[in-house]
C-alpha cells in the first residue's frame, strides 16, 4: 500500500505542470495560496539614497541622470557637499549602525503583516547583500559591511512572516546597461553579465517567497530574458512551489503578465479586477525612501491607512505598505507608531481581512460608508465612518429569520430589524469604542 502511494506521488510530481518560456504558459501558473490569504505586507525601501535623504529614492537620477537635471537636487548638493562630490561617496555613510533585524521583525509582526518585501537592489544598483556581480557597490564591501538581506530575512522568517525581495531590472548608470540602451536593446551585455547571474544567485542564496520586480519599462521582456528566468523560477528553482511574482517583467507587461498585478504604483481600481492584484503605497506620501525633511502633514494618518486597506481588500487586493528606514538603520518612530496602530486594528478586525474574498457588492453609502468582504458563510460590513446615530442601515444584504449580527471585538449579538421585507436591515449599535483606526466591523451570518 505504502509503495503504491509513493509511486502515485512520484508520478504526480513528475507530470506536474512544467512551464515553458512564454507568457501563455507562465501566466497559467496558479498563484501560491499563501499570498491571497496574507493580504497585508510591509514594503521597505532602503539603500544609499537614504544617506542624502532628500527628495526620494530617485535622488541620483534627478541630480545627475535626467536632462536637464532638477535644480532642486543640484542646489541641495551645491549647498551641502564639497564640489566634485559623487553619489558613490554617499555609500560609506550608509552605516546601519543601529540596525537590529530582530527589532524590525518585531515591529513588522506587531503590524499584523504576513509578508515583508525589502529592496535587495534599487535603480541605483547598490545591493543590500554581498553580490559578487556588484563589486564594491554592495552592503558587504562598503557602507554597513553587513548582509542586510540575509539578516532581515532570518529575523522575519523567525516570526513566521514571508520574506520577499524587490529587485530592479535596470540600473540607471551601469556602463553595460547604457551600452545596451545605446544599441536599442539589441545587445544583452548587461543582462548576461550583470542582471541574470545576480538574480539567479539571489534566488538560490535567499530563497525569497516573493520577487517584486521593477525597473522593466525601458526595454521589452525579451531583452531582460524574463520568460526564461521565470520558467526556471517556476520549474527548477529552490522556491518553485512557493514563490510569488508581480507583473513588471518588461515594457507592456504590467497589468498583463506575470504573477499578481501591481499595474501602477498606488493602483486604486474602482471595481474588482479580474486578476489577483496588490496596491503598494507609502506612509510618506512623497517618497518610498527615507527623507530627512519629512513633515507630519505629508504622511498618511492611521484612519487613512486603514480606509485604504479596507477598500483594497474589498476589491480583492493585497495591501503593501512602505516604510523608508534611516541610513543608521532605524525605522522612524512615527512609522513604527502607524504600523503598531494598524496591527492593533487588525487584532480586532483582521477576521474580515485575512483570507477574505470580495463579496457580490463592494460598498454602499447609506447612513455610513460601508465596505464589504466575505469569508465562508459570513459577510463583513466594515464601517469606515462612525454612524451619526446609534443604528446603521445596510440596504444590500438579504436577511432570513436566522440572520445574526455581531460587532467584531464584542461577543453579544446585536438586535436588528428588516428595512424591506426582502432586503436590508437596520442594526442597533452598541457604543462604538473610540479606536485609533476609526473603522468598525459588523459580522453578518445567515444572509444572502
Ligand atoms: C526564532 O528564534 C528563537 C530564538 O533564537 C528560537 O528559539 C525560535 O525557535 C525561532 N523561531 C522560528 C519560527 O524559527
Ligand atoms: C536568455 O534567453 C536566450 C533565448 O532568448 C537563451 O538562449 C539564453 O540561454 C538565456 N540566458 C539566460 C542566462 O537565461
Ligand atoms: C460610496 O462612496 C465611495 C467613496 O466616496 C465611492 O467610491 C462609491 O462609489 C460610493 N458607492 C456607491 C454605491 O454610491
UniProtKB/TrEMBL annotation:
Catalytic activity: an alpha-L-fucoside + H2O = L-fucose + an alcohol
Domain Glycoside hydrolase family 29 N-terminal positions: 13-351
Keyword list, A-Z: Glycoprotein, Glycosidase, Hydrolase, Lipid metabolism, Lysosome, Signal
Main location: other
GO molecular function, one term: alpha-L-fucosidase activity
Gene3D superfamilies xrefs: Glycosidases, Golgi alpha-mannosidase II
Residue ranges of domain Alpha-L-fucosidase C-terminal in the record: 362-444
Keyword presence, Lipid metabolism: yes
Residues with site note (May be important for catalysis): 280
Annotated signal peptide: 1-17
Pfam families, per the entry: Alpha_L_fucos, Fucosidase_C
Subcellular location, record wording: Lysosome
GO cellular component, one term: lysosome
Coiled coil, from the record: none
Hydrolase found in the keyword field: yes
InterPro entries: FUC_metazoa-typ, Fucosidase_C, GH, Glyco_hydro_29, Glyco_hydro_29_N, Glyco_hydro_b
E.C. number: 3.2.1.51
One GO BP: lipid metabolic process
Family: Belongs to the glycosyl hydrolase 29 family.
Function as written in the Swiss-Prot or TrEMBL entry: Alpha-L-fucosidase is responsible for hydrolyzing the alpha-1,6-linked fucose joined to the reducing-end N-acetylglucosamine of the carbohydrate moieties of glycoproteins.
Subunit structure: Homotetramer.
Name assigned to this protein: Alpha-L-fucosidase
